[in-house]
Amino acid sequence: MPGKKASSADAQVIMQLYDLRREPEMRKARSWWLTEFWPNNADDFMKIAMAMGTQENNWLRQVGGYWGMAASFVLSGAVNQGLFLEPSVSGEMFFMFAKIHPFLAELRQKLDDPHVFANIEKVIKSTKFGRDRLQFVAKRVAAAKERMAARKSS
Fold it and tell me: Which H or E element spans position 31?
């Protein structure tokens, strides 16, 4: 990915972000997003978003907030964009965003918040690599949903 060369300070921030992802509750939240949360539309998301006080609501906000914060570091220039967009660094962000991207406009409308997931979207769409990676991951998410639906129907 072209752009400014990553510095050792960029690498340090990336490692600190990685350490935050290893915190026990964050691991649970990330696992929930990965394995259990498969929204088909904005209403599926809203059920969790409006269920304040539930574990799932906490996890929804924790993971979304984490990746939004990390993306803000890139947008502000505090972290090298090319390093951050490496799949080994932010692959999970792409996966999470691919799950909600198809209905993001409706989600923003229902939440009455045009900035929901905006930093994540800006970072992902800011480069050709990011846009291509999102398409690639979105296909994988769609295929996983199809496999789950096929298992349920058989």
Answer: helix 24-35
Residue, of 10 and 154, whose pLDDT is higher: 10
- Residues 124, 133 contacting (CB under 8 angstroms): yes
Ordered by start, the domain boundaries in the chain are 8-153
For residue 72, pLDDT over 70 is answered with yes
Structure tokens at 34: 């990965």
pLDDT for residue 27 is more than 50: yes
Please tell me the distance from the alpha carbon of residue 95 to that of residue 113, in angstroms, as a whole number. Answer: 22
What's the average model confidence in pLDDT over 45-58? 97
Which has more pLDDT, 66 or 2?
Answer: 66
The SS3 of residue 55 is helix
Contact predicate 89/38, CB 8 Å: no
DSSP 83-121: HHTSHHHHHHHHHHHHHHGGGHHHHHHHHT-TTTTHHHH
